[in-house]
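Service request form, structural biology core

Requester: graduate student, group of Dr. S.
Request type: structure prediction, single chain
Budget code: on file
Notes: please return the result as structure tokens.

Sequence provided:
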Amino acid sequence: MDNGFNGRQRASKYKRRRRILYWILIPIMLLILVGVGYGTFLFSKTKLAADNSYDNVRNGQASTLRTKDIDPIKDSFSVLIIGVDTSEKRASDGNPRSDSLILATVNVKDARVEMTSIPRDSYVHIQSDKKGIDKYTKINAAHAFGGPELTMQTVEEKFQVPIDYYVRFDFDAFLKIIDALGGIDVDVPVSFTEQNSKDEANAISLKKGKQHLNSEEALALARTRHIDNDIERGKRQQLIIESIVNEATKFSSINKYSSIIDAVGQNMKTNLTFNQMLSIAKFGMTNNIEIKSLNLEGQDAPQNGVYYYSLNEDSVQSVANEFANELNISKPFPNATPYQDENSDTKTIPKCYTLSGQE
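Core staff response, request fulfilled:
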């Protein structure tokens, strides 16, 4: 009995982690279908959405930490996933702070993805001569100061590994995708009350347990953080992501893809071209991919009444070296202790499935 229970726990943990990879790929490339007719229409529509989402950040130049240009999937590469809140109420505030950051590397030789979540309140150095900024503050302020470009630069400075690409999504895409799917089924882990997307206090109340959530309820579950902490908040976001993927990959959701493409295309920015996305999609569809989640360590570090999270430098250096190995570049911190974390299991992700459920 114990072995069976532990096996189910491991399987559940594995499923949640594989969904993180799909969250990186699906909004961009799950919609790239093989076939004719409706699939061809969606392909063309996806290309148009991808072209409209393209952002020529850095004028198309490689990271300053690169010695040459790279081309996925010919070369291993890194991507920074940026989640932001650009709701109508906050639009007048200029560039928003990033709400979530995930740094991932894709090792094309060994078909492996490694990733880490960077706490939004991490205390880091942000510098931009172009913006006249040179200060220590929360990492999520980098996006407010200088958008994706300064966010990439700040993460590069902290980890000393090149950030090749970025993908930025906002909450409007989150809401519209769930609306297009007709809601999602989620096992809500905790009862809570939260504001809605218009920042109206106590507008959403959910009880613990399995239920069908609309977009506002799902957003509230993903955003709420005052009931515990950012670590638990991250777990809730993974639940939402898993539920979106489960619903989106159902055969019955095919006729909803057009609306999903519209939602993604209007609320996504990236410096990946459509052809690069196609290459990544093909890589995911034709390889069994290993995925490893790297956990950063740190502690609360409030200053003058402001909450900050202080990243453990040994942890940062260890994770950075791990990423460098995956990118086949020199370790930025050669004397750091190799990364070790008993909670960072490496699992094999099967090749992506077609809409019929067959490989």
